[in-house]
Amino acid sequence: MKTFFLSLLLALLGHAISAQTVYSVKYKSDANVKVYVAKYASDADLVVYKAKYKSDAGDNNGVWFFTDYASDAKKKVFFVDYASDADFKVFFADYKSDAGWKNSSKKHLMY
Q1: Three-class SS state of 110
Q2: φ/ψ of residue 55, rounded to 5
Q3: Which residues contact 106 (CB under 8 A, 6 or more apart)?
Q4: What is the pTM of this model?
Q5: Cys-Cys crosslink for 36: which of 3, 67, 79, 86, Cβ 3.0 to 4.6 Å?
Q6: pLDDT tens-digit readout, 89-109
Q7: Which of 39, 48, 28, 52 lies closest to 83 in space, CA to CA?
Q8: Which residues contact 107 (CB under 8 A, 6 or more apart)?
């Protein structure tokens, strides 16, 4: 029984650790991924909702929490000026329910 609870606890902690926390870097060379912000959701590979709290962040489902420190982030992103320079395009939504991948072939970039 102790093994079951320990396994459950580790699974829950593992899920919490894998939250989609991101940090916006100043230099392209510091980033894990380069992102372009699209004007329309239809142009985006990923629709992103900016969570107010780290606990609200998703697991690669488009719900991002922007951290204050790079060391707290799972991914470091650099926002580019041109779509051709980006690894993928995002659109920032006003509602959490709108978040998600539109082009799942790019999903691996945020794992």
Answers
A1: helix
A2: -65, -20
A3: 45, 46, 87, 88
A4: 0.81
A5: 86
A6: 999 999 999 999 999 999 999
A7: 39
A8: 60, 101
